[in-house]
Amino acid sequence: MTQPDGLTRAGFLFLLSAIVIFCLGPAVWQAVTSLKPETELIRLPPILPSHPTLDHYVTVLRDRSFLRMIVNSLIVASAVTGISLAVGSVAAFALAWLGFKGKGIVLGIALAISMFPPIAAVSPLYLAVRALGLRDTWWVLIALHTAFALPLTLWILTSFFREIPEELYRAARLDGCGPLQAFFKILLPLASPGLAAAALVAFIFSWNEFLFALTFTTTESSRTVPVGIALFPGLHEIPYGDIAAASLAATSPVIVLTLLFQRRIVEGLTAGATKG
Amino acid sequence: MTQPDGLTRAGFLFLLSAIVIFCLGPAVWQAVTSLKPETELIRLPPILPSHPTLDHYVTVLRDRSFLRMIVNSLIVASAVTGISLAVGSVAAFALAWLGFKGKGIVLGIALAISMFPPIAAVSPLYLAVRALGLRDTWWVLIALHTAFALPLTLWILTSFFREIPEELYRAARLDGCGPLQAFFKILLPLASPGLAAAALVAFIFSWNEFLFALTFTTTESSRTVPVGIALFPGLHEIPYGDIAAASLAATSPVIVLTLLFQRRIVEGLTAGATKG
Amino acid sequence: MTEVRLEKLTKRFGAAEILKAVDLTVHSGEFFTVVGPSGCGKSTLLNLVAGLEAPTAGAIYFDDRPVHLLGPRERDVAMVFQSYALYPHMTVYDNLAFPLRMKKRSAAEIDRKVRDVAELLGLTPSLPRRPRELSGGQRQRVALGRAMVRQPRLFLLDEPLSNLDAQLRIEMRSELKKLHQALRATMIYVTHDQAEAMTLSDRIAVLHRGDLQQCGKPKEVYERPANLFVAGFIGHPPMNLLRGTFRLGPEAAVDLGAGTRFGLAGVLRDRLRDFPEGGELVLGLRPEHLRLRKSGKDLGRSVRLTLIEPMGSEVWLELGWGDHRLRAKAPAEFDGSVGQTFEFEIDESRVYFFNADRGDRIS
Amino acid sequence: MTEVRLEKLTKRFGAAEILKAVDLTVHSGEFFTVVGPSGCGKSTLLNLVAGLEAPTAGAIYFDDRPVHLLGPRERDVAMVFQSYALYPHMTVYDNLAFPLRMKKRSAAEIDRKVRDVAELLGLTPSLPRRPRELSGGQRQRVALGRAMVRQPRLFLLDEPLSNLDAQLRIEMRSELKKLHQALRATMIYVTHDQAEAMTLSDRIAVLHRGDLQQCGKPKEVYERPANLFVAGFIGHPPMNLLRGTFRLGPEAAVDLGAGTRFGLAGVLRDRLRDFPEGGELVLGLRPEHLRLRKSGKDLGRSVRLTLIEPMGSEVWLELGWGDHRLRAKAPAEFDGSVGQTFEFEIDESRVYFFNADRGDRIS
Question: Is A206 contained in some domain?
């Protein structure tokens, strides 16, 4: 790598730090809020809590319905991840390796779908879901989230499979594998960083999704975490501290997971860039 | 590319078609809804309109406030795109080329941020925005959207810059360019497909964003399209047909743009995979 | 020990014709090399024989049995790839065992065969390692071993040495030749390197733009190139090829333009007796056949030394002859300096003539 | 026309020492080649001279002026890269004009210089085209042209021929040499190919693991290799190196084990007079210096032919001598077959001895 001189280097470091601080802003602000005592919540200043407290976390974690929401979210997000990976990896294999002519079109449609605004789909889908009697079930969320997560996993996995040298597939065929055997025995193990990255993206999309979850769940039996946080108890006075604590408690496992597997996922998402 | 035999091929084709149809479902369903006459809207069956009508489109496009929302959305999304690209490309250049040690950490944080659930940030930010007097302005949306779009563009552009052979940068330095001249004259033009892809992703993220827009806009003066659609006139009776027409009218330019530039963007997003 | 026969083998991708009705027979137990510049269709030919691609037209026979409709699994051929194509997530042992496992052999048999092959190739200490921990030469051996372990009826080798450095390539080349002598299996080898083709093969086929140019023993191809392409491709440095016009008159000669003439004495003139006066032909002189003398009777072969390239064991020379440029080889002791003038001599039997239009060799 | 002097030039990346205190002087107007296997530090050396990397220690002088603290722009050097590094979004014209535009020359001057260089390199018809439309040889020429157009004080060439095929490489090699003779500029060339180094250079430096092994004229390095590494690296095929023990007694000899001895008559024994009896040494014999005879008095140099590699203009042989393997070269007419036994002869002046431990040549 080329070394820049000191001044340029300092300039770039400043820029990168500024970006990180700016983008981390919302998350940090929320962490601060979750530690503020009730009385300081809606006052500004002070910006930092004068007496940091864990009261909000205690309140939230004692709440039965909060745990129920976490279970719902886990089930929905896991199902979405599983389906997206299973279907997406086979489809990505076909797109990357089998030389279909419509390849570009399928990927283009996948792109267009991930661009489609969810809000625009909510109201017409509401009618359909109601007519099918699927309101307030996990199934409707699993189906809808998969419809949006699948194109993303397809993208990630296709670029990953493309990076695997074609000669490996050919070698496996000559060594006695059928196309699917070659896929399962050689290509899939090699694509594991890509699978990890795709799984994380699908899981977190589903875990964080708010609009469909708000529209199609009506009771605690299927409500997921983001909706739960939005509808937190107390209709007239907004319990800002509890909300902040709940959302941090619910999202921190995901963030920790991301940072832990960061190296693996960075590998997965930049498969293209770093050649195996 | 290796040719699969006929049966395998048919199997894969079926799978790909099923994915496309399933994922296109919400969008197609909405298109159907937008063409249904008022009387058939909340009945199911019929699934297809018996007398397709353009009434809903006429209603929507005659509405002054709808046009105002489109202008708001355009301004916010353009600003977000511009800022993300300008800042993101310089930062990506630094990350990809200048051999900073903290590279992995910065990209990891960028990843974690794009995983952060917006809903969790809404309520604490509400207090901050109110205190700063920024409610119902473009600025607050531009800042918040940029905080979420910038990590995405950083990712796309970094993997793109990494694909450009380092010798080109070295050649430019020896031919008399300083680091920034080499960046603007050589690297940036070569990265143009990546820039196009990143721009589209940032623009569409901002155009579609719903939660922040709902929370921080209160009047028509700053309201964006997704919020406008959700709050469509008629508090008691939901105008499903008008909503569907409005959302299609507002999103179709974006979808058309995507499909038109599809080849370019596919190139941009799979830069890693296809080596220049 | 399989004879391979290609009959009018043709492959098109869209409008591009990669292979044009190639007829070729590889004898049982032969080391056969297909050589040609990149893009000549040699890798496609290998893929067709392996069953990785389907021919557009034509047939492939193994021992008179048509195989071109079979899948790669049914053909029982093994291939060594240019990139080696080792499975990166498996150890050397598992790489070697993979083809046998796919054939559902017993664990004991697999273990025995893997260890035998590893022993033969000196890979025993590397068995528990992964491909990325190996050196280039070791990877090359693992790739060979994976091909050998299941005793296929046919070996296909796709430029297997091209990723090795110069010295290792010389080593592996002779190891490969000895391996063939030990296994006595039919091997089809593909390369763009004419030196590899010459040194390794029982017979070679020269391919150019999908067309078979010549097929024969290396010595035959070198000594009697069928046409201009083969003459310019085989040999290092390549044959000097000079275009001129055939003139009779008092002294028969090839007129090379700008007053330069290559005089045709008795035998040479006889060889061109069927060639029309005034016809265009190409004169071919191999660099190693040119002998330089400092003075002597002027035969019209006065050349000026323009460049000396010392190669250690010998010297390459570049000579100006009229408007033409000649390359010659000389012993390392060669004593001369740029700008000097020499006469060159060549044995009559070592002068080649080619038809300038069609490219084929005359007489 | 710049003299380049490196003083104790050192480069470390973390714990890895890429260059170890290299001292080197490249004379003004010289074609100087740095040659070594991949990873020897030669490209790092070039980057340090270019100013693309900063040295860990040591100094670089251009004509006695220290430049190692200057940026690449201030050093006024041009570089030709292995990948050519042409700007893909610019035409050939713009590629050639780019360095002049960066120097803010007038449009008229730029146009004139670009057209001059294009004319010289035969690129005029390609000026409006983009790099991807060009052949490998044309891209190579554009890269050269971009380096030449601004008349830098120093040319750096980083394996510029390694992406060309064998025949084009021979062509471009002699073009490059003629270009140097015409420009008379100082050129530093880096390659892993010892043949390129030998043919092109006024002087060469052999680098191995960051250490300078030997520096001198190609002929000197070939005839008097300083140590085992140089002996094994320069020459194609490389020198035969056989490890043995020095024995005196009634007949002085190198004992090569398994009953094989290399007898040391008068002169040879004199050359080893300072070497201790029983010391380990390495015997070096160049393949082209071995002469084979079918019979004659037994000098203990009886070898068995194990492999014949026809190269067209000559034949390479592999011979078994006791436990050792020898490679020899013979004329194309060589008449022999695998399994036959020969005697080999070699001139006494062409026998090399190396100290087995330290690797340096003896006498």
Answer: yes
Domain containing residue B64: 55-269
- Give B98's contacts in chain A (Cβ within 8 Å): 1-4, 8-9, 12
Residue recorded with tokens 């570049």: C318
- The structure tokens 């090359």 sit at C140
Return the bridge partners of D24, or none.
D6
Question: According to the model, what pLDDT value does residue B43 have?
Answer: 64
**DSSP calls for A206-261:** HHH--HHHHHH--STTT--HHHHHHT-S-SSS--HHHHHHHHHHHHHHHHHHHHHT
CB contacts, 8 Å: C14 with chain B: none
**Residue D21 and residue C252: Cα distance in Å, rounded?**
66
Q: Is B11 within the bounds of a domain?
A: no
Which range is least confidently modeled, A4-8, C125-129, D154-158?
A: A4-8
A12 occurs within a structural domain? no
What domains are there in chain C, each with its CATH number? 4-233 (3.40.50.300), 240-355 (2.40.50.140)
Do residues D188 and D159 lie in contact, with contact meaning Cβ atoms separated by under 8 Å?
no
Cβ contact C73–A186 (<8 Å): no
Q: Measured between alpha carbons, how far is D326 from A234 in angstroms, rounded to an integer?
A: 92
pLDDT tens per residue across span D17-66 = 999 999 999 999 999 999 999 889 999 999 999 999 899 999 999 999 99
Q: Are B140 and B129 in contact, with CB atoms under 8 Å apart?
A: yes
- Smallest CA-to-CA distance from B205 within B73, B22, B20 is with B73
Does residue A201 fall inside a structural domain?
yes
Judged by average pLDDT, the poorest of A130-134, B140-144, C138-142 is A130-134
Q: Which residues of A touch B117 (CB under 8 A)?
A: 207-208, 210, 226, 247, 251
CA dihedral (A167, A172, A178, A182) in degrees, to 10, reads -80
Rounded to the nearest angstrom, the minimum Cα separation between C54 and chain B is: 8
Q: What is the pTM of this model?
A: 0.82
- Sign of the CA dihedral running A29, A35, A41, A45: negative
Mutate to test the interface with B, among A32, A70, A123 (most CBs of B within 10 A): A123
From residue C181, alpha-carbon distances to B43, C197, D221 in Å are: 82, 16, 38
Side-chain half-sphere exposure of A156, counting CA atoms within 13 A = 27
Please report, for the domain that includes residue B219, its CATH number: 1.10.3720.10
* Pairwise CA distance, residues A160 & A149, whole Å: 17
Handedness of CA D302, D307, D310, D316 (dihedral sign): negative
pLDDT category at C252 given cuts 50, 70, 90 is: confident
Give the residue from D125, A248, A22 showing the smallest Cα distance to B124: A248
The number of folded domains in chain A is 1
Q: Report the SS3 class of residue B232.
A: coil
For the four alpha carbons of B50, B53, B56 and B57, in that order, the dihedral sign comes to: positive
| Six-digit token string for C220 | 């035959």
Interhelix angle B192-208/B64-97, rounded to 10 degrees, is: 140
Q: What is the DSSP code string of C278-310?
A: T-EEEEEE-GGG-EEESSSS--S-EEEEEEEEE
Q: Residue D282, SS3? A: strand
Contact (CB<8Å) D236/C313: yes
- Provide DSSP, D207-247: EETTEEEEEE-HHHHHHS-SBHHHHHHSSSSPPEEEEEEEE
What's the token pair of residue D353?
């001895």
* Token code pair at residue C305: 């030394």
- CA pair distance A41, A34, nearest whole angstrom: 9
Of the candidates D83, D89, D102, the beta carbon closest to that of B175 is on D102
Whether A272 has a pLDDT exceeding 50, the answer reads: no
Q: What is the pLDDT of residues A182-231, one digit of tens each?
A: 889 998 888 887 888 788 888 888 888 888 888 888 888 888 888 887 77
